[in-house]
């Protein structure tokens, strides 16, 4: 059949294809097993990309077939989407909300409320892309994180039918070319994005639309009449291209971009081949594969909340036994959802009239939006907790003023700018005075966290200084302390600080950093709810470049008459301290949540040795928070009723203030040194 005058011959009719249900099974099982923690399925996330291609294929086939028949209606199309997607989705959200009410702490529940809103409005991908900040709740703690892919698809469903309708009406002969060009442009953007904007590229539609359009191209393009052998070969090659990434990719694989092309093209080959016989056809078309494919939507919806809430309930990562339990629970919930929600909504009389479908759908969306607004407005409804737990949890919000955008730059560079630093437009530490500051506090987010201690001590002594900081940027100019991208974003910031020090001629500079992380290039394993001190942290020694950078910086400061004060790091707790304390109260467990002292000492040892040696060789002063936060038995998370931390390794503002006396001795030296420096003749 000719392909120029019509699109009729370029797509399949509505013939049911059991192999495509089997392909859905091939997509969902790796996703489920990957999320459950089975390491063999390290690239199981590519199953989502298989779903994208399948969705693009089905949408294009349905719309083009109805356009050819003259029966296409936007209203009917979107009503089918509502029947297909909304009932199971909102059922999952409702049940997840009940579980979240009892299991989530206020901050997590507030994030959950935001995600309920976003899932209902199909903007989850935008929300989660924006929530990927430095102090964000970890991805594995978000029960509705998986709805990002549904949002991508729904955004596609809003745009694609309109585009195809207009293309069919005004450029029917060129639909294939137009879709191909848009797909190639999106793929090009995705290839660029994985290197330059990986979070945006992972979540946002315009970087992903080429995957859905790959499926659309299969539906639009003419299919040759393959011999049985050729069809089998194409299907086998396609299935291999899907399964290889499942076992060879990992979360560290740059994605999507070119790596996503392998499973996407593999999926397209399997669809295009339409293999009707042989081993591949039997594998995809057997009753078990077809059944799993049919419940795959519900299985996708229920598996992630099941895994997340099971982890919350257990308080640790899933062991193999619990992972298998999570898989079994996911299948059970998926079957119930498919049997009693999906099927009646699509084919039964659960809601039949158009007005009823729109009304119920609107009510569900509206309820989700109102719920999210209430939860957000009430800060996660901390009233759900007992009073003691609620009081302890308040430390989560007790953030240093030095972490504000006026004083500090986040990991993305938002907040304090290099230009402001060079002009000396910094936050003051200690007393406000018109005279020149006596010292500078310089460092990363740990500097911002401990700065209130220096601030209170300086106020008590009538002294004045300045603060400058940027998240994840140690006070080490031109030092290789981590990934190239992390090092690169600190260059201009630290250069501006060094220029300011030279310009202001500070007599003393406090240098504060998350030193253990820089010398080991790793945080504690499993930080957060699932932290387990029995799992040893990384002992890998990356201290050589840190040591070299520190010595170079200290030498440069000394040459211009500036003395350094090296502030050692606070002990890391592993747990989100306020949350862990609140959970302990709720469950009746002791409040002694700190890891063993030996664990902390081993973790801190390398960093402390680097700082001690640098101080010895340069004459720098040293301040050691562990000397007052730890005793002979353990390090403490509370001090005289004050929660010292607001997360696992950042002090709370009140916690930092309670350590002010630690800085009195060194500030006495600073005051005397600054006065003698001022009275001395300047060159």
Structure in words:
The chain is mainly α and 683 residues long. 61% of the residues lie in helices and 5% in strands. The protein has helices at residues 18-36, 47-69, 74-103, 106-121, 124-130, 147-170, 175-196, 198-203, 205-220, 228-248, 257-273, 279-285, 287-294, 296-314, 320-347, 354-377, 387-393, 418-422, 445-460, 484-504, 515-520, 543-559, 577-587, 597-618, 626-629, 653-657, 664-679; strands at residues 408-409, 427-430, 439-443, 464-470, 508-512, 563-567, 621-623, 638-639, 642-643. Strands 1, 2, 3, 4, 5, 6 and 7 form a seven-stranded mixed sheet that branches. It is elongated.
Briefly summarize what is shown.
The chain is built from 27 helices and nine strands. It has 683 residues and is mainly alpha-helical.
Topology overview:
Elements: H1 18-36, H2 47-69, H3 74-103, H4 106-121, H5 124-130, H6 147-170, H7 175-196, H8 198-203, H9 205-220, H10 228-248, H11 257-273, H12 279-285, H13 287-294, H14 296-314, H15 320-347, H16 354-377, H17 387-393, E1 408-409, H18 418-422, E2 427-430, E3 439-443, H19 445-460, E4 464-470, H20 484-504, E5 508-512, H21 515-520, H22 543-559, E6 563-567, H23 577-587, H24 597-618, E7 621-623, H25 626-629, E8 638-639, E9 642-643, H26 653-657, H27 664-679
Parallel strand pairs: 1-4, 3-4, 3-5, 5-6, 6-7
Antiparallel strand pairs: 2-4, 8-9
Helix pairs in contact: 1-2, 1-12, 1-13, 1-14, 2-6, 2-9, 2-11, 3-4, 3-14, 3-15, 3-16, 4-5, 4-16, 5-6, 6-9, 7-9, 9-11, 10-11, 14-15, 17-23, 22-24
Task: Give the tags.
683 residues; mainly alpha; two-stranded antiparallel ribbon; 27 helices; 5% strand; disordered C terminus
